[in-house]
């Protein structure tokens, strides 16, 4: 009787391990199927922006070096492992690329009005311009605009002003990432 019980327990253990191995195989097949489906549809992971070697050391200047965009760009360049030369002499200026950030502009255009004539919705246009001067090459001037819609509510002016600050911060982050992406494509 004891031998029979031991045999039943042994058989149950073997069945349990077989079930676990089938579940393991099923999970692996599901992962493989998902991988094939994702690659088959043309999806690619976004690669990091690689700055070219000649732009790894950069002299950053700007019309307004205390602006939030300038500070954000400086931070993102350092995150991209770009060495920023603040003090540059005449000898190094011929060997180092210079990125000059022009004054950024924010324009608002009315999209809709309330019945009482107050503005209900704006379109925010954030314009960014910069110039890249590389040694022994012609300078490259670039500019672009980012757009966002912003709904205004005069009854919640404090909350809406905070929302506008958040939107502007996001637009600055997008602008700096776009500048770095454009630098990586040069």
Provide a brief overview of the structure.
The protein has 186 residues and is of the alpha/beta class. The chain has helices at residues 2-40, 68-79, 90-93, 157-184; strands spanning 57-62, 83-84, 97-101, 105-113, 119-133, 140-151. It folds into two domains: 1-43; 53-184, Lipoprotein like domain (Double Stranded RNA Binding Domain, 2-Layer Sandwich), CATH 3.30.160.
In terms of topology, how is this protein built?
Blueprint: H1 2-40, E1 57-62, H2 68-79, E2 83-84, H3 90-93, E3 97-101, E4 105-113, E5 119-133, E6 140-151, H4 157-184
List keywords for this structure.
Double Stranded RNA Binding Domain, palmitate, lipopolysaccharide binding, 186 residues, membrane, six-stranded mixed β-sheet, alpha/beta, cell outer membrane, LPS_assembly_LptE
Write up what this structure looks like.
Strands 1, 2, 3, 4, 5 and 6 form a 6-stranded mixed sheet that branches. Helix content is 45%, strand content 26%. It starts with a helix and ends with a helix. With 186 residues, the chain is α/β, with parallel strands linked by helices. It has 2 domains: 1-43; 53-184, Lipoprotein like domain (Double Stranded RNA Binding Domain). It contains 4 helices and 6 strands. Helix 2 (68-79) links the parallel strand 1 and strand 2.
In CATH terms, the superfamily of the largest domain is Lipoprotein like domain
Helical proportion, percent range: 40-55%
CATH topology of the largest domain: Double Stranded RNA Binding Domain
Output the number of helix runs. 4
- List the helices and strands in order: HEHEHEEEEH
List the domain count as a whole number. 2
Structural class: alpha/beta
Q: Which architecture name of the largest domain does CATH use?
A: 2-Layer Sandwich
Function: Together with LptD, is involved in the assembly of lipopolysaccharide (LPS) at the surface of the outer membrane. Required for the proper assembly of LptD. Binds LPS and may serve as the LPS recognition site at the outer membrane.
Pfam families: LptE
Organism: Pseudoalteromonas luteoviolacea S4054
InterPro entries: LPS_assembly_LptE
């Amino acid at each position: 009787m004891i031998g029979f019980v031991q045999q039943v327990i042994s058989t149950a253990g073997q069945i349990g391990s077989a079930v676990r191995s089938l579940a393991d195989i099923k999970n692996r097949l599901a992962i493989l199927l998902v991988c094939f489906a994702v690659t088959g549809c043309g999806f690619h992971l976004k690669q990091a922006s690689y700055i070219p070697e000649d732009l790894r050391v950069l002299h950053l200047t700007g019309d307004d070096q205390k602006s939030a965009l300038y500070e954000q760009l400086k931070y993102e360049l350092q995150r991209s492992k770009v060495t920023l030369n603040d003090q540059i002499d005449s000898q190094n200026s011929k060997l180092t690329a210079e990125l000059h950030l022009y004054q950024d502009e924010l324009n608002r255009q009315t999209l809709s009005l309330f019945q009482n004539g107050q503005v209900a919705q704006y379109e925010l246009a954030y314009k960014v311009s910069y110039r890249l001067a590389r040694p022994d090459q012609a300078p490259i001037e670039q500019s672009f605009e980012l757009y966002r819609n912003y709904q205004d509510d005069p009854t919640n002016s404090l909350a809406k002003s905070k929302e506008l600050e958040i939107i502007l911060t996001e637009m600055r982050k997008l602008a700096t990432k776009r500048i770095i992406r454009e630098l990586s494509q040069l």
